[in-house]
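Feature request disguised as a bug report, sorry. It would help if multi-protein outputs had a clear separator. Right now it looks like this:
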Amino acid sequence: MATTIQTETRPMTEEADFLQIKSVDHVHFYVGNAKHAMYYWWKAFGFKPIAYSGLETGNRDFASYVLESGQARFVVSAPYSPSSALASHHLVHGDGVKMIALEVEDVEKAWKETTARGGKSGWTPREEKDDFGIYRTSAIYTYGETLHVFIDRGDYKGVFAPTYKPIKYEAESTGLAAIDHMVGNVQLGKMNTWVNFYHQVMGFRQLLHFDDKDISTEYSALMSKVMQNGNGRVKFPINEPAEGKRKSQIEEYLDYYLSPGVQHVAIITGDILKTVDTLRSRGVEFLRVPDTYYEALPDRVGKIKEDMKAVHELGILVDRDDEGYLLQIFTRPIQDRPTMFVEVIQRHGAKGFGKGNFKALFESIEVEQERRGNL
């Protein structure tokens, strides 16, 4: 059942960054086959498998792998029993993000503060113990069935969490270094509800706002607001569809995920040309904008360090703001349902999200929707 947050909209006044989030600890995917998903992130995206939990480690409920690339950590889990909550979630939504875990100093304080401000509890503060110490967590719901899990690793020295054991795999990195941001898709008219949730419940601030004039094509449009925590380390854009002639990509997502959820994870790289070239060689499929996009690119963004010919050949998008420029590219959906995808991004000072690329990008997405018969 989708989460409903009852909050009243009010101005985003300054207040203390009470959560004091250290980082995005990990992103937890519920999938149909954890071994296959692990192999995909390992061999295609260059994430190194570092831990496993399953029957052999005393976990009777699900199989799970932990993978890392730089500071980015993903967990993929699949159920053993068709009657489990994990299986029910996967039956409805398919592969997707269930938990966005945030490292904090005090999980009990984080839970008490957020639930007192209107957040719906996922679970109360709890401790899990093994030979490596105490692993502390609590959780609240955000949009759809997605959870924010608060984690304290201060007294835990294990590889990841209790029941997880180290595994040794060699991985050839693609240069993916850290999570830049994660985007949530919500229903028409609900964007401000969730913007208000992040402000009131979690103490975030609005960083940017894009309306249907910024993100639109001949056929469809959407609106987006970017929420950011106090230290700027965690950014959560929230998208909602806008009225258009045909079905927007947000509506398509909602039709197939069957609730609000994480649309894409953006991962930082220090060399996007090398990263994208490697990902392509491993079979990762990317959206492609028309070649005419690149004819106007030099005049629009000015001089960049990267070779424009290579940028064009790889299909990478470029945008500039007052702080600098960025390069970005988006994969096609990474599972059978046209739901979640991945963004690869490199920043040269720019703090934005590629506003100048929106029209070309969304036209290319509409081409994909038309091929699927969903435009």
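(second protein starts here, but nothing in the output says so)
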Amino acid sequence: MSGKRASLDLRNYSLVTAAYWTDTLADGASRILVLFFFYQLGYTPFELATVFAFYEVFGIITNLVGGWIAARFGLRTTLFSGLMVQIVALGLLGLAPEAWLVVPYVMAAQALSGIAKDLTKMSSKSAVKLVVPKDQEGALYKWVAILTGSKNALKGIGFFLGGVLLTLVGFQTAMICLMAMVGIALVSVVLLMQGDLGRPDAEAKFKHMFSNERAVNMLAAARIFLFASRDVWFVVGLPVFLRTVLGWSFWEVGGFLAIWVIGYGIVQALAPRFVKRRAESGGSEPDGRTATWLAFLLAAFPAGIAISLSADFDETLTIVIGLFAFGIVFAMNSAVHSYLILAYAHGDKVTMNVGFYYMANAGGRLVGTILSGALYQWQGLTSCLWASVAFVLAAGLISLLLPRHPTTARKSLSASPA
């Protein structure tokens, strides 16, 4: 019976992952479509940032509430809801009269897209715990790394797809194409998924979403600053810099961002091969020390790019080399974080722990997105890069407080009161 259950969990997890990949592709494409569409209309960098503000704000709310919903009603509920909301979000942009496509309307549509993305992401990330046997930390780390890396690779493909669709068919037709793609994914999982994905807990309380565990809280805090360090220059500042200062076309900007995110995803998927924990026990899984030294190493790259740009080094070469170096280290750091939250999470509270953690993730993206537009408009890309340095250093300092051994932290979690 247990073998049948494991086979069913694996089948359902495969369906969840395929749906998540589809949603990720559509989400990446729609983001770049919205960015370039409003850039063509003459919006300032700060105005472009505000278009995505609700996307991140509602991502915070979704991860908070969604973790509780998943714990209480199961991951099927959050998965199906996420896909349906994404269809609505894309439809609002693809089917609306063109006169409606103003900032408040698009902000509302992006808010729904942020809700959809985080519901499906939480479903997929939490489902990993169902198919990996307990106490197999190495296997868990590899599965998480592969899932996270593949997601980001597909997001990069989505950036490129968005640029291509905008050029070939225009903004609204592109949104309709993406809506149809997500619709196919929803119908497929509804028809093919069997049984429950995880066991719903009718007694799960919303107050349990706020973790009282030091390891989870410290990791969430480090995650806020880590993702703020990326988005403070990547979301608005970098694309606008490439287009206006370096004179790249939309195809070139979209293609470059796509290549970067795909490469970033590949590094995340391969992270277990590169990141090893040198422990007395001979284990190879990362711990709090791994997250710490990766964060401090990461700070060197935005600082180096900022110094090089100020010294009038070749701007194109500096950006290309610096961004790819930053991406490699950032990807490894992010993969370690994604492993640690599942390693720290108690089995009965995994969806709530993951929801709390990704709420922090969305909070970091929100801060980074708003500052990306504001700082770029104020002092250009260099100011965004120095803000990135400050955020990464903060993530490193907080990571010093993470447990040295994930298994120890998990035992502490399981012993704590509900």
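Even a blank line would do. Unrelated, but nice: The CA atoms of residues 224 and 238 lie 20 Å apart.
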